[in-house]
Amino acid sequence: MGKTLLNVEDLVVAFSMYRGDTLKKENLEVIHSLSLDVKEGEILAVVGSSGSGKSILASAVLDLLPKNAIVSGRITYDGKPLSMKTTPDLYGKEISFIPQSVDYLDPLMKVGKQVQGVKGSKARQEELFKKYRLGKDTEKKYPFQLSGGMARRVLISGAVMGNPKLIIADEPTPGLDLELAMETLKHFRTLADQGTGILMITHDIDLALNVADRIAVFYAGTIVEIASTQDFLSGRDALRHQYTKALYDALPQNGFKPIPGAQPYAGSLPSGCLFADRCPYRDDACAGEQPEREVRGGKVRCAHAT
Ligand code: SF4
């Protein structure tokens, strides 16, 4: 694995919002002290349940957060601070984005032209459409003429058009059948093997385990564990956090055991371990803040992980 491309350190994101039906504003913190890094040639999958705020991480990295967002922490690319102000040229070139919503496509432009971009090559677009099994006539279509799966493949083609060094993929596979989802992920793997770093945000841990090098487990607005994919394949004892172990037990191949309880709401988080309400092993040591620490080559926020 090569040098670090993306580094996110102690990221905090809050939204300034009106409280209930009053005119008073409050800051709702949705990302708490989140740290991760993506190296050249690796796929880091950020895995967590749908609706838990993972996409906010992608928006923060891409500097796409709305105006009422209050952000602190450090986001660097290749060692330099990353933002629309300081490094606008990186976005869409060295760093590309596969969004969760197909609404990112321009409804008034034929998709072939959209994928080619301003200076893109038609030959490369045709090559990518072929690779993603988009028929020859697709390039002349408008987004409304595509199925959800086709639109997603067009988005993926657009993201890899310029041979980016870092790809941020936010739920890249919904709308694709299993075969095509696996094929897309295999293509990500090929890109990574050629040196691209990929941050893949997904709710589908099973799919992620097929291609990712490391898995960052997202829970209630932060990363509670970063483990190698090999740790997941080795079994629950190789994992460190109780939520990760519960996720492992909930996989179909491990008996589909549900995780009791629900993730805490951003506005009413517990003061200590965010998973404490659902953890059978909680004790007094879990009541304080759980800083990230290294355990067996991975990272974890749990007082009792060894
Ligand atoms: S810190 Fe405590 S409550 Fe949280 S996962 Fe670890 S053992 Fe469970």
Automatic annotation (TrEMBL):
It holds the Pfam family oligo_HPY. InterPro entries: AAA+_ATPase, ABC_Ni/Peptide_Import, ABC_transporter-like_ATP-bd, ABC_transporter-like_CS, Oligopep_ABC_C, P-loop_NTPase. It is a peripheral membrane protein. Gene3D superfamilies: P-loop containing nucleotide triphosphate hydrolases. GO terms for molecular function: ABC-type nickel transporter activity; ATP binding; ATP hydrolysis activity. Its EC number is 7.2.2.11. SUPFAM superfamilies: P-loop containing nucleoside triphosphate hydrolases. The complex is composed of two ATP-binding proteins (NikD and NikE), two transmembrane proteins (NikB and NikC) and a solute-binding protein (NikA). This is Nickel import system ATP-binding protein NikD. It comes from Butyrivibrio proteoclasticus.
